[in-house]
Amino acid sequence: MSHDDSSAAVAPRHRVELDSAEALRLLGSVSLGRIVFTRHALPTVRPVNHVLDGGDIVIRTHETAALTSHAQGSDGPGVVVAYEADAIDPDTHLGWSVVVTGYARLVTDPGELARYERMLRPWVEQSMDRAVRIRPDLVTGVLLTADRWPDTA
């Protein structure tokens, strides 16, 4: 991969903090993100597709996935995860990024699981017979813009 030095010609960007409602709206506008969880006491990141359902993030997974075993073995509220999604133009460097931190639990209700199977088609050619729901506790988002916006965005 070659290094593109075109960023030197790009005007400075402004970072605008988004409220949690706008951040979740933006996250719901894309289908691909990255889930971050702990595996062998180290952070692990996986690209996944998702759907936003009633403010929760739902991803599909499979029985032997590391995240499935962590979420399945969890008592209480679930396992702590982070979820990130963004849409940043590589040429203009404009866009947004959202990070959600919350608890992930395996979906065990057969009716809910069947509904998520209809709502969310996996983007990899693999059996995805499980679903994980992330309940957001902390939602942060930033907008990268060329315009100066007031801090009250």
Q: Could you characterize the architecture of this molecule?
A:
It is built from three helices and seven strands, in the order E-H-E-E-E-H-E-E-H-E. The longest helix is centred in the C-terminal third of the chain and has 10 residues, at 110-119. The chain is elongated and about 50 Å long. Strands 2-3-4-7-6-5 form a six-stranded antiparallel β-barrel. The mean pLDDT is 84. The chain has helices at 20-28, 66-72, 110-119; strands at residues 14-18, 32-39, 42-53, 56-61, 79-88, 95-106, 130-145. A hairpin with a 2-residue loop joins strand 3 and strand 4. It is α+β, with helices and mostly antiparallel strands.
Structure described in brief:
The chain has 153 residues and is α+β, with helices and mostly antiparallel strands.
Name its key features.
45% strand, 7 strands, elongated, 153 residues, 6-stranded antiparallel β-barrel, alpha+beta, 3 helices
What secondary-structure arrangement, pairings included, does this model have?
Layout: E1 14-18, H1 20-28, E2 32-39, E3 42-53, E4 56-61, H2 66-72, E5 79-88, E6 95-106, H3 110-119, E7 130-145
Antiparallel strand pairs: 1-7, 2-3, 2-5, 3-4, 4-7, 5-6, 6-7
